[in-house]
């Protein structure tokens, strides 16, 4: 007997991390929406049988999308998405004016518009923890409750991806709700995956035949010297002689302490960001080799499959940004598995 495939749509799909996680949990992802050309190209490279809407979500009719996908209102099993979160990020909100005025903040209401018009059985929205405390979230939840979605203390939570099999410290807000009842919270794993688990067996960078693993990041002689002096396996720039510190670090020695730091083999990695191949952006030096982690290593720490393709149309920086902005598929799978369980138990 063939198992039922539950349908899903991925809004703001980016490079496809959410889609991969949903698929691995058992969802049939029918379509993605992504405005960024390079991210949409990456999504298509890996998900050739999905419809991709490469346009502004505000210009899309949810009902027309459903019709093209052969679905009626109320039939979609899951509507999922991660509205652009830069306006809510910790880094941006140090300047509160930037956060308040960032127009991307209101794209969370586009997610609600799609829910209103599609009325899916379940919903999942993921974002940075900053949205958890934002007034917009209260409005979103109230609108969803009015549509019949049920919420309890587990429905909206900030969870650390490292508790669910991701070898990376990454706190994210996740909202899951259903019109069919309440959804159980996923169980945390007892043992965390580490940098060693993820990267130790990789072929030597520069000799793999994989552009993401072989693409060298060039540094000045001064930066190369700094990298070489940082102690292996978790060392910090604070551990090197101050004569080698950059002027900006001398002026603010307590700021951004992870900058020019090394990862530690037997710990989880720091949060992988859009600057993940640049030691000046965080603790992104390899645990023992005198280099930044490669783009492939960053993608693996995000739990993308080892053969996942990324468009190089915008160069290394473009690939790094897609990887850093992505949702870790393993984290999404652990959350989405609870939605599959819920739908099965509801007999839908």
Q: What keywords describe this structure?
A:
alpha/beta, 2 domains, seven-stranded mixed β-sheet, Rossmann fold, 348 residues, 14 helices
In which order are the strands of the major sheet placed? Answer: 3-2-1-4-5-7-6
Shape: elongated
Number of strands: 7
Number of helices: 14
Low-confidence stretches: 88-100
> What's the helix-strand series?
EHEHEHEHHEHHEEHHHHHHH
What is the CATH C level class of the largest domain, in words? Answer: Alpha Beta
Cα-to-Cα separation, first versus last residue: 16 Å
Query: Within the CATH hierarchy, at the fold level, what is the topology of the largest domain?
Result: Rossmann fold
Structural class: alpha/beta
Strand content: 5-15%
Q: Could you describe the 3D structure shown?
A:
With 348 residues, this protein is an alpha/beta fold. The protein has 2 domains: 6-191 and 327-345, Vaccinia Virus protein VP39 (Rossmann fold, 3-Layer(aba) Sandwich); 195-325, Alpha-Beta Complex (DNA Methylase, Chain A, domain 2). Helices cover 34% and strands 11% of the residues. The protein has 14 helices and 7 strands. A 7-stranded mixed β-sheet has the order 3-2-1-4-5-7-6, sandwiched between helices. Mean pLDDT is 91; it is low at 88-100.
């Amino acid at each position: 007997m063939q198992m039922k495939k539950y349908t899903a749509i991925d809004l703001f799909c980016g490079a496809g991390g959410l889609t991969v996680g949903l698929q691995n949990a058992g969802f049939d992802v029918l379509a993605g929406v992504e405005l960024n050309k390079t991210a949409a190209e990456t999504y298509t490279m890996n998900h050739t049988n999905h419809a991709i809407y490469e346009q502004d979500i505000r210009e899309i009719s949810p009902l027309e999308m459903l019709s093209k996908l052969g679905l009626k209102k109320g039939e979609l099993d899951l509507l999922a998405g991660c509205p652009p979160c830069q306006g809510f990020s910790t880094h941006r909100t140090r300047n509160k004016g930037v956060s308040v005025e960032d127009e991307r903040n209101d794209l969370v209401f586009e997610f609600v518009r799609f829910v209103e018009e599609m009325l899916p059985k379940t919903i999942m929205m993921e974002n940075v923890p900053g949205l958890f405390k934002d007034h917009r979230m209260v409005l979103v939840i109230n609108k969803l409750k009015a549509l019949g979605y049920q919420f309890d203390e587990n429905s909206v939570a900030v969870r650390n991806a490292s508790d669910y099999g991701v070898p990376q410290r990454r706190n994210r807000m996740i909202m899951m709700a259903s019109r069919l009842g309440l959804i159980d919270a996923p169980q945390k794993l007892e043992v965390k995956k580490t940098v060693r688990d993820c990267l130790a067996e990789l072929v030597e960078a520069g000799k793999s035949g994989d552009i993401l693993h072989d693409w060298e990041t060039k540094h000045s002689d001064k930066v190369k010297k700094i990298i070489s002096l940082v102690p292996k396996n978790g060392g910090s720039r604070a551990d090197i002689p101050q004569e080698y510190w950059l002027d900006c670090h001398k002026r603010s020695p307590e700021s951004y302490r992870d900058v020019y730091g090394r990862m530690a083999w037997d710990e989880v990695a720091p949060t992988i960001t859009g600057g993940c191949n640049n030691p000046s952006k965080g603790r992104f030096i390899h645990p023992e080799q005198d280099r930044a982690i490669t783009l492939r290593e960053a993608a693996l720490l995000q739990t993308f499959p080892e053969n996942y393709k990324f468009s190089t149309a915008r160069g290394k920086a473009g690939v790094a940004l897609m990887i850093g902005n992505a949702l870790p598929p393993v984290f999404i799978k652990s959350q989405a598995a609870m939605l599959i369980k819920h739908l099965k138990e509801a007999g839908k």
